[in-house]
């Protein structure tokens, strides 16, 4: 599914983020930038040791923020490691931290002249964020950013499995209706 926002494209696909041919891919990282399971582990395995070497030099990243490394052996030139919140019921600032994680990635992309970025669904795996809430935060944050930042030409959400794709598609259709797109 694709939506045009100004001169930019917001796209949903189902697949493997490590194979994307965007300039950057975002990683759902932990605050220690130590690699891990899920998307994080897959990106580190596919990208090779150069990514971890840069992560070690950086040292860490607070929740709600992001840092940039090489893409190593990936097709993407860069990995933007975003630390999303662990979901603890929704009353501990999780929504603001998740929005901030996406915004941090987008700001890095703008600053570095990155024109295309692929995102996973941050915080919805082992961090337990409910997919319906997380997809609305992710998609509205990106939509609003693209309205003000046409330098980013493509934002692609690469979703793992039918369940995640269907949830994001439903949310994007709702947002598009609400915004008359």
* Residue share in helix: 40-55%
Number of strands: 7
Rg over CA atoms:
15 Å
Shape: globular
Mean pLDDT: 97
Number of domains: 1
Identify the strand order in the major beta sheet. 1-2-7-6-3-5-4
Count of runs of 4 or more consecutive helical residues: 5
The CATH class designation is Alpha Beta
List its salient traits.
181 residues, alpha/beta, Leucine Aminopeptidase, subunit E, domain 1, seven-stranded mixed sheet, 5 helices, 21% strand, globular
Summarize the structure.
This protein has 181 residues and is α/β, with parallel strands linked by helices. It has five helices and seven strands.
Give an overview of the whole structure.
Helix content is 41%, strand content 21%. With 181 residues, the chain is of the alpha/beta class. The protein has a single domain (2-178), classed as 3-Layer(aba) Sandwich (Leucine Aminopeptidase, subunit E, domain 1). It has a seven-stranded mixed sheet with strand order 1-2-7-6-3-5-4, sandwiched between helices. It starts with a strand and ends with a helix.
């Amino acid at each position: 599914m694709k939506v045009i926002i100004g001169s930019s494209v917001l796209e949903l696909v189902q697949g493997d983020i490590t194979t994307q041919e965007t300039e950057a891919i975002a990683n759902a990282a932990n605050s220690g930038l130590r690699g891990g399971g899920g998307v994080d582990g897959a990106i580190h395995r596919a990208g090779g040791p150069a990514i971890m070497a840069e992560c070690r030099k950086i040292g860490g990243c607070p929740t709600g923020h992001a840092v940039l490394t090489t893409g190593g052996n990936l097709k993407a030139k860069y990995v933007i490691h975003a630390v999303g919140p662990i979901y603890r019921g929704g009353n501990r600032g999780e929504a603001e931290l998740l929005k901030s994680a996406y915004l941090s990635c987008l700001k890095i992309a703008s600053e570095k002249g990155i024109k295309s970025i692929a995102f996973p669904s941050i915080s919805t795996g082992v961090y337990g964020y409910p997919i319906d809430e997380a997809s609305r935060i992710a998609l509205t944050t990106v939509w609003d950013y693209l309205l003000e930042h046409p330098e980013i030409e493509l934002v692609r959400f690469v979703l793992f499995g039918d369940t995640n794709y269907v949830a994001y598609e439903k949310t994007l259709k709702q947002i598009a209706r609400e915004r008359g797109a």
